[in-house]
Amino acid sequence: MPRRILVVEDQEDNRQILRDLLSHSGYEMIEAEDGEQALTQAAKHRPDLILMDIQLPVLDGYEATRRLKADPKLKAIPIVVITSYALSGDEQKARAAGCDAYVAKPYSPRALLAKIREFLP
Questions:
Q1: Predicted confidence (pLDDT) per residue in 57-102, tens digit
Q2: Residue 84 burial (CB count, 10 A)
Q3: Domain count of the chain?
């Protein structure tokens, strides 16, 4: 059974890139376009990993991450932030919210897959 990854990304073109990358690498992808959908999809599907954008409508990635990590049923799911927020202090802010890893956009597909495999060997 393929490992399931929830991708939380509001831009369709970015989701398409991840859809192609993950499907070709043998992962099943679930999608959410905002932080509120991320909470719903995570509770419904219990993914093995979450790839979380930060700049999202409705509920940003920081708050969505905090809420996921506060839920006893979901807190063990690793969250990898993928964001264009790459200024000094942004990674620390993401980690303070509860994310387990941080990848800055633009990213190398090979590097992103390596990061995913750290959590899903």
A1: 999 999 999 999 999 999 999 999 998 866 668 888 899 999 999 9
A2: 13
A3: 1
Does residue 2 have a cis peptide bond before it, meaning omega lies within 30 degrees of 0? Answer: no
CB 68 within 8 A of CB 23: no
**Cα 85 from Cα 3, distance rounded (Å):** 27
Residues 10-19 have pLDDT tens digits of: 999 999 999 9
Q: How many residues does the chain have?
A: 121
- What's the domain range around 101? 4-119
3 state SS for the chain:
CCCEEEEECCCHHHHHHHHHHHHHCCCEEEEECCHHHHHHHHHHHCCCEEEECCCCCCCCHHHHHHHHHHCCCCCCCCEEEEECCCCCCHHHHHHHHCCCEEEECCCCHHHHHHHHHHHCC
CATH at 70 = 3.40.50.2300
How much is the pTM? 0.95
Q: What is the mean pLDDT of residues 46-57?
A: 96
